């Protein structure tokens, strides 16, 4: 499993022999690989006019390109805002609630993300093929797909420690030019040889994407809840496979809260260069993981029903299977006391056995 940014072919369809050689070296002579582009074919074509583009078949003959359009940027942010407004309606009728939920299109984004991740996982698991995922810059929907695919395929990523490692390597600390192994049952490479000049590091730009909450009157041009969408997809997996993830909903809620406002430095800045060189985050702040891994805090995050599942978990992406994450979107409306008490009782029963 590989990921990168888009090839910088531009309107003149420039070629990069080094890039062609790199991707060619990954495949055996008769082997075929898949490139999953998270843009529509039309958007990828338009990107050439601004210096981006796609892999021409003539230059990458062993790779088959598949387009699976995933919204990002303003459309995704507006979808999030509409959902929050619908959930904040003090007295909606059933008809009004269902209409506003549908018009937000949020659950459609969840379905699309899971479907694309399943496609990547199927190419790896059932076809036995190499898979390269990219969109434009490789810092948004690309991370969403590769991280979810690893959760689906790799049981080690579904442990608390493995999930923290997944977030670190996919969303936070990936470096440009790095070519390194991803551990677990599904080894692969993470690389970014196509980052345009001026983009110092890969990884998700949290400061730009999570500058304000959906309740804010201000609208940042680069805001987009990609990380929230990832957490929502993980919650969908935990709901469909309640025994397969070692961590529970509380961890996902904690990560969401800290991505937008945190006393820790884990999600500060936009890339590793800003964190390590400009802001020296590790020297001047504390890590969120250090707090969460304290025994008392860690116990609150664990799923008492967890039983290690070595198999691939294939989520259903049928419309009936995708549900609203009430624990997040309705947590200020629906009291969680009874649910918390139920989980506490489950933990007691598990310990008693």
Report on the structure:
With 353 residues, this protein is mainly α. The chain has one domain. It has 16 helices and six strands. It has helices spanning 17-26, 41-47, 74-87, 94-104, 106-125, 141-153, 160-172, 206-209, 226-240, 249-260, 272-278, 281-284, 288-292, 295-301, 326-329, 337-352, and strands at 2-3, 33-37, 63-67, 131-134, 180-181, 189-190. Strands 1-4-2-3 form a four-stranded parallel sheet, covered by helices on one side. Strand 5 and strand 6 (189-190) form a beta hairpin. Residues 175-201 have low confidence and may be disordered. It comes from Vireo altiloquus (Black-whiskered vireo).
What are the secondary-structure elements, in order, as H or E? EHEHEHHHEHHEEHHHHHHHHH
Q: How would you classify the quaternary structure?
A: single chain
Determine the number of helices (DSSP H or I, runs of at least 4 residues). 16
Uncertain parts: 175-201
Strand order across the largest sheet? 1-4-2-3
DSSP strand count: 6
Q: Biggest sheet, in brief?
A: 4 strands, parallel
Distance between the termini: 40 Å
State mean pLDDT (0 to 100 scale). Answer: 84
Structural class: mainly alpha
> What characteristic shape results from the CA principal axes?
globular
Radius of gyration: 21 Å
- Which bin fits the share of residues in helices? 40-55%
Strand content: 5-15%
Number of domains: 1
């Amino acid at each position: 499993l590989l990921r990168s940014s888009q090839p910088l072919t531009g309107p003149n369809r420039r070629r990069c022999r080094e890039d062609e050689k790199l991707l060619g070296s990954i495949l055996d002579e008769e082997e075929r690989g898949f490139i999953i582009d998270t843009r529509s074919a039309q958007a990828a074509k338009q990107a050439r006019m601004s210096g981006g583009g796609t892999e021409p078949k003539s230059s990458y003959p062993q790779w088959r390109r598949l387009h699976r359009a995933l919204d990002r940027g303003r459309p995704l942010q507006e979808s999030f805002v509409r959902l929050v407004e619908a959930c904040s309606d003090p007295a909606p009728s059933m008809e009004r609630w269902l209409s506003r939920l549908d018009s937000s299109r949020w659950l459609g984004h969840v379905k699309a993300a899971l479907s694309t991740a399943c496609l990547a996982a199927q190419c790896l698991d059932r076809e036995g093929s190499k898979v390269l995922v990219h969109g434009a810059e490789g810092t948004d929907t690309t991370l969403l797909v590769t991280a979810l695919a690893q959760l689906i395929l790799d049981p080690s990523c579904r442990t608390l420690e493995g999930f923290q490692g997944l977030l670190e390597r996919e969303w936070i600390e990936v470096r440009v030019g790095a070519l390194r192994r991803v551990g677990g049952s599904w080894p692969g490479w993470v690389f970014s040889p196509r980052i345009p000049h001026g983009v110092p590091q890969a990884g998700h730009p949290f400061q730009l994407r999570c500058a304000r909450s959906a309740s804010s009157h201000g609208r940042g041009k680069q805001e987009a809840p990609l990380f929230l969408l990832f957490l929502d997809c993980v919650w969908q997996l935990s709901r469909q496979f309640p025994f397969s993830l070692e961590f529970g909903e509380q961890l996902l809620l904690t990560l969401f809260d800290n991505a937008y406002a945190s006393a820790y430095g884990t999600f500060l800045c936009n890339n590793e260069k800003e964190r390590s060189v400009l802001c020296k985050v590790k020297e001047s702040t504390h890590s969120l993981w250090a707090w969460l891994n304290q025994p008392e805090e860690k116990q609150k995050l664990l799923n008492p029903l967890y039983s290690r599942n070595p198999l691939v978990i294939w989520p259903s992406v049928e419309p009936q299977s995708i549900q609203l994450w009430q624990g997040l979107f309705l947590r200020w409306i629906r009291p969680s006391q009874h649910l918390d008490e139920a989980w506490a009782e489950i933990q007691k029963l598990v310990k008693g056995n």
